[in-house]
Amino acid sequence: MPFKAKDQQGNIVLATDFKSVLEIRKNFPKGSLFCPFCQTLMFPRKRQNTSLHFVHTHPCTTVMEHHPESPEHLQGKLEISKYFQEVYKGMIDAQEAFIEIEHPISEAGKNGRIADVAVVFSTGYRIIGECQLAKIEAADIYQRTQDYYSISADVLWFLGGAADTPENRQAAVDLDVFAGTINFTYST
User: Fold this and answer.
1) Count of domains in the chain?
2) Of 26, 28, 79, 112, which sits 20 to 30 A from 17 (CA to CA)?
């Protein structure tokens, strides 16, 4: 359930820039939105207890590492984005940085990764915010962190739900990448 699609001209379309599915459909007719990662057709969707987002007409075929996302995970990405907006407001206002949800990094890891949220600085430096709510092993936190370190990016992990275990917290603390827990009630 990504927040971004690509139009026929290759421009990124963010679901967060619109108020409704109808508004997106008025601006982008059927068959004119594509996955920015695998190029398959996408369409807008908003269901009860979810944010406005895009859905593939067929499963995403990108080789970049990505995982299924719950409505809570989508909301978590928005919360991390808001957090980064606040922390880096001065740099964003000065156009020294921008924030991107679902930031593709083809050179991170074996097949690349799609970071949940990234602060991208004009120097090329990146800070990655990873929202993890589903069960994950500490070894996966180490590996994903190392994949981001391999491109000289820093990482902050926001753990919640089934991912917020003592082992995962310790892994994130050991790596000095533990941002804290993310617990919220989803609201429409």
Assistant:
1) 2
2) 112
